[in-house]
Write a structure and sequence with these properties.
The complex is a heterodimer of chains A (224) and B (296). Chain A has a domain of 151 residues: P-loop containing nucleotide triphosphate hydrolases (Rossmann fold, 3-Layer(aba) Sandwich), CATH 3.40.50. Helices cover 32% and strands 28% of the residues of chain A. Chain A contains six helices and ten strands; from the N terminus they run βββαβββαααβαβαββ. In chain A, helix 5 links the parallel strand 7 and strand 8. With 224 residues, chain A is α/β, with parallel strands linked by helices. Chain B is mainly α and 296 residues long. Chain B has a domain of 191 residues: MetI-like (MetI-like fold, Orthogonal Bundle), CATH 1.10.3720. The longest helix of chain B is centred in the N-terminal third of the chain and has 34 residues. The chains are: A alpha/beta (224), B mainly alpha (296). Chains A and B meet through strand 6 and helix 2 of A and helix 8 and helix 9 of B.
Chain lengths: 224, 296
């Protein structure tokens, strides 16, 4: 379970003001907002990329507000994916496990299972520069899930892909999230994504986060 | 003045930008050929290219394989070749060890005094070489609290610095490191810091993220920076002359050999050694060109 209480984060001239937000264990939270509303800043504040100037972040009851980035146990998929250009798909899936000095045999098994589950087993040793948009997103998702994080943060994971790929990835995201039982916070500006994925909905406007009923998604239009 | 949607003058009747006002006749536009422009630029630009080619050609034409072999047969020149290879390599390695963290910090972090540090790093590049050598000499002999760096090196490391091969390395390093920093800073600037941040969310400490994610992307840039530092060390003369001297079979490197051979009227030997240095410089350039385009 993730609980964000009064989190204040600065990003250049932008200030995310006292954000409150919570997603129960194993839940799928969607945070909607327009470009520049502070979505990415909030995710970066939660995972520790930007220091909080006030407020707390609690993960499964433990305060992680001041915890080092590497010790938070949060899987993060940034909007640009930030794949490692010198590594293969298999290297990406095993990266966090190698850092944790997991035995090689176990890494091989877990990577194979994860690749199968994400339907990227055939990509194996391929470099990430050659991947399609959909494949690259699956690799970034697999890399973030590989060490079994307690929280998964997805920053517009379905942006800039065609509609058919987006549909397939939506189905995959929901299935993977249920299989892993990982608490997820998904940032988007798409109502359609929110409709299809959200257990719990938040909207962010000008750095202010508010909770909204899922029923509010029934309104017309696709964008936030 | 702005026009409203109701203004009958708005819309199709507005003249396009650049239109000739009524009552004036338009002068026919003469496009003209492009070749005079290209010819003028090529003529001016080729002056320098031809100068460099002529310099190299003059060196090659004014010597012969015989002179080259005679020069390489001299024990003093063979010593200078060996000392040059050793000192340039040590200076370039030291430059990379120091320049890599410095360039990374300058590339990734905003900190108070960052601009001042960058300005300080430009000083060895623009400082007259003799002044740099003199500054090194003064630094090592400046008494502070009753001791100098020279005396400290003798007391604690059992070695002299000034007028020894150690001084050659220090003089080469003093300039080469600045070039290595500039080169590596460009390399790190080209590498997306986002991947490093994600690596840290995956459990990496900063040093692990640097070694596992940044360095594999930067290795071509590191090799290029090493090569540039090596080349700068090869060409260093002024600081070496002042700080290390030009003692044959002791502190003589190839750049000082050219000077020493010239000073005793051995033009053929000086040109032969110059050709060796030109060949080394061309190899270095080829490596940098090969790697430079593929950095990050």
């Amino acid at each position: 379970m993730i609980e964000v209480c009064g989190l204040t984060v600065r990003s250049g001239g932008f200030r995310l003001a006292a954000a409150d937000l919570g997603v129960p264990s194993g839940g799928y939270g969607v945070l909607m907002g327009r470009t520049g509303s502070g979505k990415t800043t909030l995710l970066e504040g939660i995972c520790g990329l930007r220091p909080a100037t006030a407020g707390t972040v609690r993960l499964d009851g433990i305060d992680i507000t001041g915890a080092p980035l590497s010790a938070r146990g949060i899987g993060y998929v940034p909007q640009d994916l930030a794949l490692f250009p010198t590594m293969s798909v298999r290297d990406h899936l095993g990266f966090a496990l190698r850092v944790r000095r997991v035995p090689r045999a176990e890494i091989a098994t877990r990577v194979a299972t994860l690749a199968e589950s994400l339907e990227i087993a055939h990509l194996g040793e391929r470099g990430v520069r050659d991947l399609s948009g959909g494949e690259a997103r699956r690799v970034a998702l697999g890399r973030a899930l590989s060490f079994r994080p307690r929280l998964l943060l997805l920053d517009e994971p379905l942006a800039a892909v065609d509609e058919a790929t987006r549909d397939r990835l939506c189905v995959l995201l929901r299935r993977i999230q249920r299989e892993h039982g990982v608490t997820t916070l998904h940032v988007t500006h798409s109502r359609d994504e929110a409709r299809r994925l959200a257990d719990i909905l938040y909207v962010i406007e000008h750095g202010v986060v508010t909770s909204r009923p899922l029923a509010s998604l029934a309104a017309a239009g696709d964008d936030a | 003045m702005t026009r409203s949607a109701d203004d009958p003058a708005a819309g199709a009747e507005a003249p396009p930008p650049g239109a000739v006002p009524p009552g004036r006749t338009a002068r026919p536009h003469r496009a003209g050929p492009d070749w005079p422009f290209h010819a003028a630029f090529i003529a001016l630009g080729s002056v320098y290219v031809l100068l460099v080619v002529a310099l190299l050609a003059a060196d090659v034409l004014s010597t012969s394989p015989r002179h080259l072999l005679d020069a390489l047969a001299k024990p003093e020149i063979r010593f200078a070749v060996r000392l040059t290879l050793v000192t340039c390599t040590i200076a370039a390695l030291l430059s990379i060890v120091v320049a890599m963290p410095l360039a990374y910090l300058l590339s990734r972090h905003e900190f108070p005094g960052r601009r001042a540090v960058e300005a300080v790093l430009d000083i060895p590049v623009v400082l007259p070489p003799l002044v740099l050598g003199l500054s090194l000499l003064i630094l090592f002999h400046l008494p502070v609290a009753g001791a100098t760096l020279e005396s400290l090196a003798q007391r604690h490391l059992g070695m002299r610095v000034a007028y020894t091969p150690v001084a050659v390395v220090i003089a080469q390093f003093a300039v080469a490191c600045a070039f290595a920093v500039h080169s590596l800073q460009v390399t790190f600037d080209r590498i997306d810091p986002r991947a490093e941040q994600v690596a840290r969310t995956l459990g990496c400490r900063r040093d692990q993220a640097f070694c596992r994610v940044v360095l594999p992307q930067a290795w071509r840039g590191v090799v290029a920076a090493f090569t540039i530092a090596w080349a700068r060390s090869l060409g260093e003369f002024g600081p070496i002359l002042v700080f290390a001297g030009a003692t044959r079979m002791r502190t003589e490197v190839l750049s000082t050999t050219v000077f020493l051979e010239l000073s005793v009227g051995q033009l053929e030997a000086a040109v032969a050694v110059s050709l060796i240095m030109i060949a080394a410089a061309i190899v270095v350039l080829a490596i940098v060109r090969l790697l430079g385009g593929k950095v990050a």
